[in-house]
């Protein structure tokens, strides 16, 4: 039996709305509900994955969790502290514990800085150590992420995509963080490099006892790395469960469709993909009732007007679909 782990992060009814400008012709402003009433928690040392199509709000959710975006409503509790109400100095100190790995290593590294400067930059902001001590730390973390010491004085353009992402990971780890928000960290990498970086992230998690919030549109990546997974659709979580439970027993038709599209590495095993009709609806004008009803093959009359609530279908497995409450 798995031991209960302490919660490091609790997200409660989080909302992030973006408002359009008022115009003379229109009285009401347009509102995009990018994240709408999302709740989940993450245990220490766990990897929590959020999956969904592009535009479903998963990156906005991650950025709101780490306070890169100010949430419209709701709470983000980190180690019991409400991040939005912390005094700026305390929030600044917490920044060293909460780090971010962005999707594009090309864009997140300043091309004019050497590898040493890039990895050392967080220490220059947060640490009082001497230049020699900082250099030792940089060398040590480079070794951990598989970068050679001779790269210290090189520039980002001299590296491949995978090596650049190792530099980004080293920079995220240099302050000995506890929690890392990983925003599609391998989606810009080739398949073989992707596997190496994912293995590295898994090893580093064990060694440094890290907790990850991992955003991806790729379900095979999420399956490899995550312990628990939330599926997002148009700003809402529609299903949430432990990895194996979700993959073996999906309850929401959207999750089932996403899973059916994962390639099986065995030519003898055949699986019919469930094709989703149409594109993700515009978040400017989302469907009424169940947000998924315009693409769902099981749609019923009530799906068009009544929003389904999250229902617990098994231990720590919840989904929001009227099919789960047929007796109503
Ligand atoms: Fe499909 Fe209705 Fe379930 Fe929404 S509530 S996923 S439309 S069956």
Pick out its properties.
eight-stranded mixed β-sheet, Rossmann fold, single chain, 328 residues, four-stranded antiparallel β-sheet
Portion in helices: 25-40%
Q: Taking Cα atoms only, what radius of gyration do you get, to the nearest Å? A: 21 Å
Number of domains: 1
CATH superfamily, by name, is: P-loop containing nucleotide triphosphate hydrolases
Give the strand line-up of the largest sheet.
Answer: 6-7-8-3-9-10-12-11
Structural class: alpha/beta
The H-and-E topology, N to C, reads as EEEHEEHEHHHEHEHEEHHEE
CATH class: Alpha Beta
Small-molecule binders here are:
iron/sulfur cluster
The fraction of residues in strands falls at 15-25%
Low-confidence stretches: none
Tell me what the CATH architecture is.
3-Layer(aba) Sandwich
Major beta-sheet overview:
8 strands, mixed
What is the fold named in CATH at topology level?
Answer: Rossmann fold
Word description of this protein:
It is globular and about 70 Å long. The chain has helices spanning 58-65, 88-94, 115-126, 131-144, 161-173, 191-208, 219-225, 243-248, 253-260, and strands spanning 7-19, 31-43, 47-51, 73-78, 81-82, 98-101, 179-183, 211-216, 228-233, 236-242, 310-314, 317-320. It has a single domain (7-97, 177-324), classed as Rossmann fold (3-Layer(aba) Sandwich). The chain is an alpha/beta fold and 328 residues long. The chain has nine helices and twelve strands. Helix 3 packs across helix 4 (131-144) and helix 4 packs across helix 5. It binds iron/sulfur cluster (SF4).
């Amino acid at each position: 039996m798995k031991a209960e782990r302490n919660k490091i992060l609790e997200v409660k009814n989080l909302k992030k709305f973006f408002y359009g400008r008022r115009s003379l012709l229109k009285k009401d402003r347009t509102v995009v509900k990018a994240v709408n009433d999302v709740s989940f928690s993450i245990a220490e040392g766990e990897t929590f994955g959020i999956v969904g199509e592009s535009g479903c709000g998963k990156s906005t959710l991650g950025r709101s969790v780490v306070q890169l975006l100010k949430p419209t409503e709701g709470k983000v509790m980190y180690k019991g502290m409400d991040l939005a109400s912390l005094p700026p100095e305390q929030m600044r100190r917490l920044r060293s514990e909460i780090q971010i790995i962005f999707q594009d290593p090309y864009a997140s590294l300043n091309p004019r800085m050497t590898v040493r400067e890039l990895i050392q930059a967080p220490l220059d902001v947060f640490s009082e150590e001497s230049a020699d001590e900082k250099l030792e730390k940089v060398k040590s973390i480079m070794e951990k992420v598989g970068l050679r010491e001779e790269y210290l004085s090189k520039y980002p353009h001299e590296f491949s995509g995978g090596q650049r992402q190792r530099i980004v990971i080293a920079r995220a780890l240099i302050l000995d963080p506890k929690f890392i928000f990983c925003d599609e960290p391998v989606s810009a990498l080739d398949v073989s490099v992707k596997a190496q970086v994912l293995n590295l992230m898994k090893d580093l998690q064990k060694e440094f006892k890290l907790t990850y919030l991992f955003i991806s549109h790729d379900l095979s990546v999420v399956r490899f790395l995550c312990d628990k997974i939330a599926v997002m659709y148009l700003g809402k979580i529609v299903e949430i469960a432990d990895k194996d439970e979700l993959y073996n027993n999906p309850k929401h038709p959207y999750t089932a469709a996403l899973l059916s599209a994962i390639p099986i590495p065995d030519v003898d095993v055949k699986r019919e993909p469930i094709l989703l009709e149409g594109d993700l609806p515009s978040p400017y004008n989302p469907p009424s009732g169940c947000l998924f009803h315009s693409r769902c093959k099981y749609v019923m009359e009530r799906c068009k007007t009544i929003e389904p609530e999250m229902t617990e279908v098994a231990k720590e497995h919840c989904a929001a679909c009227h099919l789960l409450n047929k007796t109503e």
